[in-house]
Amino acid sequence: MPLFGNSFSPKKTPPRKWASLSNLHLLDRSTREVELGLEYGTPTMNLAGQSLKFENGHWVSESGSFLGDRRELQRLRKRNQQLEEENNLLRLKVDILLDMLSETTAESHLMEKELEELKQHNWRKK
């Protein structure tokens, strides 16, 4: 018998039992909905006074006023474009201000350096 031999031999695990003892998983969907009360209907929500329902993977207006929705959509797109243009203008202004700040900072550092050199030069003369 070796000192570090392979004496470990685990027992064989028994087969697993069914996870669920219920036979509801064998029923078809409609029977399950009736048995378990899983019929929820279509999801609906109210957003900004507009009632919407979820059908075929898309949110659809329940009121059916598509003409009003299109006008509102056009207005929102126009407003979005205006805000994007304003945002671009403001970004440009920020870039210009940052350039001006960095230029002024560089000039200030150069002036401070020149002032220190003049002070050193004056101090040596005395």
Automatic annotation (TrEMBL):
The keyword Coiled coil applies. InterPro entries: Chibby_fam (IPR028118). It comes from the Eukaryota. Signal peptide: none annotated. It holds the Pfam family Chibby. GO terms for biological process: negative regulation of Wnt signaling pathway. Residues 66-121 form a coiled coil. The keyword Coiled coil applies. Keywords: Coiled coil. One of its GO terms (cellular component) is nucleus. This is Protein chibby 1.
